[in-house]
Amino acid sequence: MSAEHAFRVTRTTLADGRELLYFDDEAGYVSGQRTRELNDSRDLPEAHTESELRRDPLTGEWNCYAAHRMNRTFMPPKNANPLAPTTDPAAPTEIPADDYDVVVFENRFPSLSMHMEVPEDFATEVDGQDLFPRRPALARCEVVCFTPDADSSFKELSYSRARTVVEAWAHRTEALSRLEGVRVVFPFENRGEEIGVTLQHPHGQIYSYPYLPTRAALIDKQCREYAAAHDGADLFQAVLEAELNSGRRIIAEGEHFVAFVPAAAKWPVEAMLMPRRDVKDFSQLTDEEKEELTHMYLDLLRRLDQFFEGVDSVPYIAAWNQAPWNTTQGQAASADAQGEYTTRYGRLHLELFSMMRSAGRMKFLAGSESGISAWISDTTPERIADRFREIGAQQ
């Protein structure tokens, strides 16, 4: 049986009121013999945002408007990297320490935020029209710094450090799910300038949403309809069993997780990592599952960077989908006043994908994909799986 991963969480507040948490796995910090710097020396105005949500009556989708993000940090030089440790007191960064293991903090330029004063007369409709619902974008966006090394990447993390990131995802998923109004928590990483990354330092983000974004809403709908038509059966279990029975697109199997290319994969390169049991989110994983997930995720990232000949760093998005809550308050969704648990449809799973269609060439979402959401792929899921397995055999 795997041992519990040892780490220590230290909380502090940045100069503008945002929260920062150190996740340390080094022995000195875990034991308490060493402590973290908790003083942010910067002179910053109090954090404040005014983002909002509006619902599109034609599609039913909620869109977020965060005008304050227009002037957020964009591709700073190394000596002005806000995600690096503060090694020069005269040039403080977002992290008030000269080194760190893993750090999580509230985004300085968030799309959704709890640092918002909502007036009592806030208009819940645009221009007084009930066809256009409107509400404050109250939730929380966090940044996860995987390493203090700006030239590194997630795949280069040691197992222990990557496991600490997994623990951070679990910790923050549980905490953010308890925020009033939050429906789903979404950890993700964007890597590569081609993806639109504005800070090259290895990091990810965690968004909590007070509504169900399109993919989460569609998955929830499909799961409900499948359960209704199949005596309560789990759609994710059916998909996993179908992929395993076929075997054609399986990349790797573990005791607790399976990596495969979905039969209806959209992207030029795509893989899914899914637990064998019905795990709703990171906070429900056992130590054994976290251990295997960490190893298999690192393996997938290493294979991804070998997918194209001559490309050492493939741009990607790592999207950790988690099951949404069924009510508008995460804490209340886990158990109602009578102690009866509600049903959560969906399952934790990774969707790892790249827009790169061949070495150095990106797939751009043009009229068909962007205009009417009609997807056209330049490859097949079977060819993607063959390449992933080929790389694994060479390692």
TrEMBL record:
Keywords of the record: Carbohydrate metabolism, Galactose metabolism, Metal-binding, Nucleotidyltransferase, Transferase, Zinc
Catalysed transformations (reactions): alpha-D-galactose 1-phosphate + UDP-alpha-D-glucose = alpha-D-glucose 1-phosphate + UDP-alpha-D-galactose
Region feature Disordered, mapped onto this chain: 34-53
UniProt protein name: Galactose-1-phosphate uridylyltransferase
Domain of life: Bacteria
Pfam family, one: GalP_UDP_tr_C
Keyword Amino-acid biosynthesis belongs to the record: no
NCBIfam families named among the record's database cross-references: galT_1
One annotated Gene Ontology cellular component of this protein: cytoplasm
Family affiliation: Belongs to the galactose-1-phosphate uridylyltransferase type 1 family.
